[in-house]
Amino acid sequence: MNIIINKKVFAAIMITTLILAVVFVKGSADGTIPGSEADPVVTLSYVELKSEQTKYYIDSLIAKNNQDIVDLKTQLEQKNQEILNLQETVSQLSSDKGFEVVLLNKDKTLLSGAGAELIVRSGKVTAIKGTNGGLANITSAKDLNTGDAVVLNNLLISSRDDGRGIKASIDSYLLIRGSYTVK
Predict the structure, then answer these.
(1) Number of structural domains the chain divides into
(2) Are residues 104 and 160 in the same domain?
(3) Which of 22, 34, 126, 172 is positioned for an S-S bond with 168, CB 3.0–4.6 A?
């Protein structure tokens, strides 16, 4: 009888184990959501969804990089223009350091800018007084007024841009450093 009880107990344990195994397997199979990370089988719709998400992400990165490139090109063009402007300024400053040879034709007037320096090298010219005074003759320490003859090879300085200058009676050569206008 012991053997029969042991067989009955063994059979009950086996049936219980089998039922638990079926419930466990069925529960774990039904517990996963298709397309989730726990699902070992990947569906076509899941792959297509992930592919579209990846494509959108990559496209957004490309668009951002393209915009960054456009911004950098704009900045580069601005910096190149600044460089050109600075080179032009340096060139002007370099040329402003020396005197410029100017031919002032007969009956023409040269109006000097503020800080301009003039030296009459040949010819015959007279001074023109500005609204605030005349040309300063640095060599002779005199202030030249309208009609005063300018001595050759004397350094003249125009302190203001107020209409001061010189007028040529005959063709005359000058050395000028600074701004001026010929009329």
Answers:
(1) 3
(2) yes
(3) 172
pLDDT category, 90, cuts 50, 70, 90? Answer: confident
Q: Could you tell me the residue range of the domain that residue 24 belongs to?
A: 1-31
Q: Do 85 and 113 fall into the same domain? A: no
Question: Helix, strand, or coil here: 128?
Answer: strand
**Separation CA 144–CA 49 (nearest Å):** 91
- Checking if the pLDDT of 176 tops 90, the result is yes
> CA-CA distance, 183 to 170, in Å (whole number)?
15
State whether 110 and 172 are in the same domain: yes
CA distance 89 to 82: 10
| pLDDT over 90, % of the chain | 62
Same domain, 124 and 53: no
Stated pTM of the model: 0.50
Cα–Cα distance list, 2 to 10, 68, 93 (Å): 12, 87, 121
DSSP 8-class letter at 1: -
Q: Are residues 4 and 76 in the same domain?
A: no
Residue among 120, 114, 123 at smallest CA distance from 164: 114
